[in-house]
Amino acid sequence: MNKSILKKELEKINKKNKRRFYMPGHKGRGEDFDFYAYDITEIPGADNLHDVHGVIGAVQRKLAKIYNSDEAAILINGTTTGIHSAILGACVSGDQLLVPVNCHRSVFGALALGRIEGVFINPKIQKDMGFAQKIELESVKKALAENSKIAGMVLTNPTYYGTTSDVKAIAELLHRKGKFLIVDEAHGAHLHFNNKLPMDAITAGADVVIQSTHKILGSFTQSALMHFKGERINRQRIKSFLALLQSSSPSYPLMISVEEAVDMAYEKGEAVFEKIIQAHRRFCQNQEKSAPITLYDEVESDTGYDRSKWLFHTQGISGEQVETLLSEEYGIQCEMSGDDDVLAMTGMGTTSEDLERLTQAVWELNDKIKLHDFPGRPVGKKNGQAQKNRLTESIKTEVPLWEALTSDATERESLQDAEGRLAAAFIIPYPPGIPVLLPGSRMTPEILGYLSRLLDQGVAVVGIDGNRELLLLKEKGAIHES
Ligand SMILES: Cc1ncc(COP(=O)(O)O)c(C=O)c1O
Hints:
Layout: H1 5-16, E1 19-21, H2 35-38, H3 55-67, E2 71-75, H4 78-90, E3 96-100, H5 105-114, E4 117-121, E5 124-125, E6 132-134, H6 137-146, E7 150-156, H7 167-176, E8 180-184, H8 201-204, E9 208-211, E10 224-228, H9 235-245, H10 252-286, E11 293-295, E12 309-314, H11 319-330, E13 332-334, E14 336-337, E15 341-345, H12 352-370, H13 385-388, H14 401-406, E16 410-414, E17 428-430, H15 445-456, E18 460-462, E19 469-473
Parallel strand pairs: 1-13, 3-4, 3-7, 7-8, 8-9
Antiparallel strand pairs: 2-10, 5-6, 9-10, 11-12, 12-15, 14-15, 16-19, 17-18
The protein binds pyridoxal-5'-phosphate.
Pfam family, one: OKR_DC_1
Family: Belongs to the Orn/Lys/Arg decarboxylase class-I family.
Domain Orn/Lys/Arg decarboxylase C-terminal: 394-454
């Protein structure tokens, strides 16, 4: 049989970049796993993820015990479907949901699927690099005071960049007012295993927590875990949505990988993350603040910074260039790069040697960049402009998000003709990856000017194509009522 084209391509990629600083957390290292042997269906004795009575129940109870939750549910369609189900199950008709705008797209997807009204709040923005740093308690208080129908809130913690909010204070505030808290802990399944990492959401008092065990722990991509704590949310409704939205053929290899990843973290997580945290600290202590590539840290954060994320800030050279140099010259592949940042993600599979090689490579690049030792590479690029022109307007929708997103009364128009019009798609600049327009929100002159400046600076804006066109609603009255 011919070898799969995809397999051949991935083998090439793996050969080139031996050091993985991107997801998943196993980094390509794991015990041999005979996928075919364990890939079965729901035959007697194997239980059924959607109707748990046997061995899957025993595994889920073990996982709940490890994380100190009341109940755990293994997910086989990622945190994405966990978030959809949690929101759809927690909200009832007419509820509002408090949503920080730096939430993952699955949160906005759930609003559309459930026809739930989002009350949007802005995060505090990190001043040098422009990403969402935290949700301030005051913003939550204000939104609750102004919106009587808020049933609860979704919070992303930690963020993709490793920053955290005061989940405990937010949970206490919401609970005092009889509201629920769902935490998207997609990037935090490891927090529980080392107490130098920020507090995990179950400990902080969240009602439902969803974790992508594949991102930093070592389960297979697409597997995840949901936890329930307390009685504030109707668990059965959420579980019904899980059965409705996830595949009716749950993969046993994915389920096994969640169990094994958590077992591994329980056994070795503390040591693995200790090594990563110490290497991060050493790097920060020894770096020159004015170096072209510096490692970001938040020593003064009240709620801690997740040092499993190695987020580099670049000056005089773009993040994209640094990512390419690390790959081409050192065989190190990072998770992502932007105008002035590069993110290297560590995980359960990261070794001391990986950390040393990354550290060494960045030191060397810093020396070479200072000497302008990169023929043909523009090292004088001034970056950070996009963030400096950051928008201050807060986001709101004038037409329900689900109506705008599913409307067939749309047309593509050029950005310059879009002033005063309603968007029919998400418009999200990367970085920082925070939507500036949701389906159903209006293009003001300020937003239009901001988007034009970003595009002029070469920033990628999801929802605006290469011809600077975007999808708009034809007119408010033309939206079909459904
Ligand atoms: C903050 C956040 N939430 C949720 C998700 C979705 O997770 P999954 O890929 O497990 O569906 C992601 C994935 O990138 C994410 O970054």
